Queue: 4 jobs
Job 1
Amino acid sequence: MRLSTLAMDGRRLVAVRSGDELIDLSLAAPRLPDDLAAIIAGGGEAREAVEAVLRSPPRQAVLPSGRAQWLPVLPHPGKILCVGLNYRDHSAESGFQQPAYPALFARFASSLVGHGAAILRPRQSEQLDYEGEIAAVIGRGGRHISRAAALDHVAGYALFNDASIRDYQTKSPQWTVGKNFDGTGAFGPEFVTADELPPGAAGLRLRTRLNGTVVQDASTDDMVFGVAELVAILSEAMTLEPGDVIVTGTPAGVGLARKPPLWMRPGDVVEVEADGIGLLRNPVAEDGARLAADAA
């Protein structure tokens, strides 16, 4: 099952994919919440309602092609928990020793953009870097979750581009500022339920392309801490809730590690793709605040 959050005619809606068509759940199943996180939290009952739509999609609920705008698949997650240095080759290229405990940092919803929306290069820096990743979405909350039970708490997966402002990332020992500029966290296009993928999204090929050239190419089997382990470790400290997002890390090939560095620039197009999940595509543009300041 593949679900997405869209905007059309001034309203937000959740859609489910049926072949090449998107079905507006607000029309096809009006008793469902109009929020994907709430549908995920609805568990089996909500899933059965969506499956009923897929068995007999009403024609009046089919979205007109090209009319809707893709929003972040979860526009306002309660938590966005990101994992740094989770691929050994990326730790090596970044000059860090591989950590024995996940390098964790937070993103905030204000940084998110959807599929097709522009990733923004801010006025303060030209060091805008790509990081193709897979995000796991919590479906059943809990604390002190065992590794053996952890994947039962994962509802599904989506793609993420953890675009980073590198000079701001390294202004202090904490990475938070460099990871939270507005318009830098691309998330989508679709939430893919866990049953459509291997357990823990294992064995998937993850690729990032910049202007059509492959710049990152790895298997999720190369992650140091797999999805189940991340869920268990995070739940040692905090209660995970339905709709929380765990962004699982990026492989080698980032622009910072290249000689010379390869930064994303306005006019570029960046794509993140993974087997079974789909393709997240975003142009790169100047932040409007930068344009306004330059014109002043």
Job 2
Amino acid sequence: MAVVRDLRVLLRFQSFRRLLAVRLLSQSADGVYQVALATYVVFSPERQTSAAAIASAMAVLLLPYSLVGPFAGVLLDRWRRRQVFLYGNLARAVMAAATAALMAAAVPDWLFYVSALCVTAVNRFVLSGLSAALPRVVDTERLVMANSLSPTAGSLAAFAGGGLAFAVRLVAADSDVAVVLLGAALYLCAALVSLLMAPELLGPDLGPARPRLATTLTGTARDLVAGVRHLAAPPRREAAWALASMTLMRFCYGALTVMVLMLCRYGLTSTREEGLRLLGLALGLSGAGFFAAAVVTPWAAGRRGPARWIVVCAAAAAVLEPALGLPFAAGPLLVAAFVLGLTTQGAKIATDTVVQSAVDDGFRGRIFSVYDVLFNIAFVGAAGVAALMLPPDGRSAALVVTIAVIYGAVAMAMAHFERR
């Protein structure tokens, strides 16, 4: 296989192997920690789970990406990236261990969420640093290959970490603390592996004169505003429409995620163990849908065009989501998880393509920062709306129909834009 051959070529670079090991350990720890946080909020026997609690957990997991993300690059250009991996992962190991202690001590929820928020905030710096460091460990000819394979391997590691957390949770009863400590151990391993690289290996090359940090941060905020204005100009309307459509589809996916969590906890199962198994299956099938989208979308978007593929994805979701969701049964729910994973990721890949092709090169970085903020805020906002609409057992026909209407509106709006 071409992927295996490309990976074998990259692994000949010793520094790439070490950087990849840091990524795999860091992102597998992320998967463990995020599943531990979600299952603690939803499936702990001593907690009465609510949709509002799930929305709070999602805010803790995602808002740091939105608030810190646009400014992470500014700081990473001032700090040694090797040191970011070392001290960032050490800090997360300590804070994850503190989160485990808070779980065991049954402290007030707000203190637990503050601890978890600190762990996820550091994550943005580590992930951005991993991408920025790649050109320092491979040659120019293989950089595109490394940019393709390394993040994909990290995503698979995060998925594997989440699966490991589910496995520990199912084997050992009341094991929330043990799962979080497992994540802390993986963060510590990532920090130790980073010590195998010299501090100056990963850059950046620090110049003699740099603008003050406050000036740079203010300039970053102005650049984001300029990026929004660039996107609003008539020549970029296709990108703006695609971005708006993807934001709404992400909103739909977020609201349905909260509903699935409540259904797995109360609506479709009678025990916590059954609920965990059903949730694990749903997440696994949704991940399979994401993978299928990566395979199908290049062909489909190439034949129909990226914007029309967004129409197809939104229309399919509008039809299939209520058909599979309104029975509120486990079988259709699992099929819906796959379908919505495919349609959501398919639309995202198409949106990425539209934005990359329609936006001027000098603005792409800023536009994708805005994209990242919208993507995560939509998910968190959807969780808040779902918390207001969902009953305790998660069975809400009103929410299912509302989401179908939004999907349909996205499909019609994009189709109308294409006709014009």
Job 3
Amino acid sequence: MSGPPDVDYRTTSARPAWSALPEGLRQSISVALGTEFVTVGPSVSSGFTGGFAAPAQLPDGRLVFIKAAPEGSHTHDAYQREAHIVPQLPPTIRVPRILTTTDTAQWFAVVSEGIAGRMPGMPWTQADFDLVTDNCLTSADALSPSPLSDLKPYVDDFGEHGPSQLPNDIRTGAKPLPEGLQSWLPKRLEEIQYLVDLTPEALAGTAAVHGDLRPDNLLIDKSNQCWTVDWNWLTLGAPWIDWVGLLPLAQHHGIDTLEAIKINPLTIDVPNDYIDSLIAALVAYVLEVVDRPPPPGCTPEIQRHRRLLGWCCLEWLALRRGW
């Protein structure tokens, strides 16, 4: 491969139609909400899973959004986690309010406010980048310190037993180097490992961190208000993590993120190596999973996303560190 894959985050999932859900589940959702649905739209095509997710209209004209997943699936746990987290978020965070949930013997469903909006980052424009940046600033302020008490550290997502040693294992020949990434990568594995080793110190903090901020977890409505969705990965860490995680793809689309770091209140006083350690950790994660089959319940598009993420993170580090 001579470059990264193109990923259209608007067309990455494979979800069932409303009519494919069990009749008992559909009735249970209506009962929990206290009304029938006038229409239920087609499932959204963003995301990487097969959980049901679609907009619906109520008799009073309101737009709602329905998610549902069977017991035992990744999305079942994710939807339950989000339903637990969202009601605890501060009111200054722009997140669709949860209206009701229903938990049957084999399914879990959650209904939230519907937001008529579009996904930013397709590709990133300066205007959308500025809107999302402002949203990240508002969220970081509201979530520092965390209003939730049951969060695990963000760095645990990269390894509960310490930082990944994969870059070093690849450098020494103990593990294979995945194909399709930059040809200069082997020469930089030692420095990448150094940055990854910094993560317990660099990424530690008392802020609640969304932890999975991508274009498909953001919406910009008709009033140019930015909303954040899919809160099931909330963890504890440095307040700049979510925003910095967006920068490699934005840089790939032509946004001057290196200059943005210098003026953003979230990062203006953060050591350069700390910022780079987050992106290096994402690189190590990609090196670990990019050649694996998609996780159960996920579409093959997640592998294209991971390869794009790895490529953009490496290019971003190269710019930052003069590689």
Job 4
Amino acid sequence: MDRDKIKALIALLDDPNDEVFSSVESALLREPVEIVPVLEKAWEQSLDGLFQTRVENIIHSIQLNDIHAELKKWLKSPNNDLLYGAYLACKYQYPDVSIIRIKEQLSELRKDIWLEMNEHLTSLEKIRIVNHVLFDVHKFSRNTSKYLAPENNYICEVLNTHKGNPLSVSVIYSILCRELGMPVFGVNLPKNFILAFVDEAAMTENELASNEAAVLFYINPINKGAVLGRKEIEFFIKQQKLQPQPEYFLPCDNITIIRRMFNNLSFGYDSIGEDQKKEEIKKLLALFDMLNEENPQ
């Protein structure tokens, strides 16, 4: 990054000539996200309303471009790490969010669970401990007063408030279980995202169960980690008047989970009339469609 060049361009942002501004804006938008602190400092040092508005818009566009590039890279990565995908979703609303801080918060929760564990416990007993720590000790729960609020999908916020929606709480639950050696994966059930505890012997190369028989039991994190069987899932599907699909009973991949997270954000922003944010989320969701087109089933 050429700081002198950046400062020279920033100095022209208050130029009243639209052509000059357009040229300067285009040049700045080609720069990496690392120029944002320089732009922020320029904003702080100015009292000009037009200049500040233009800087704010450019910063937002640069940060959005950065998320677009990072998400595209994540989608093409071989493992599609769940935590990093959820972190990228957080970066949309909170560009300065620290993945180190998120990992520290998860580490604190993991430690609390680990201290209660021993090697003689059954799978169900281990899940009861996870439930006790998350829901009895740390009081994670559904955000009932603001159920559709976009912030329920940002795990950085959920880790701070301990309130979220079925998807975000399930993501945190799954990450913790996986880090503790328990094969717990997301199940893309409509209207209520849940988890599946899988028989490790039935895992495939991509770490997902290849058939439903591999699922030992299901977990509903938004209901304090209630353990469910297939019949309860079938009853829920019937109750919601849904047509049963195989994927409603099988673990899904991390791309499916993060896509659902962005879909939730789109719906959430739409529900509060944030049309610009809804459209920006749609552009990020388009990356998932592009991936499907490049890798048809």
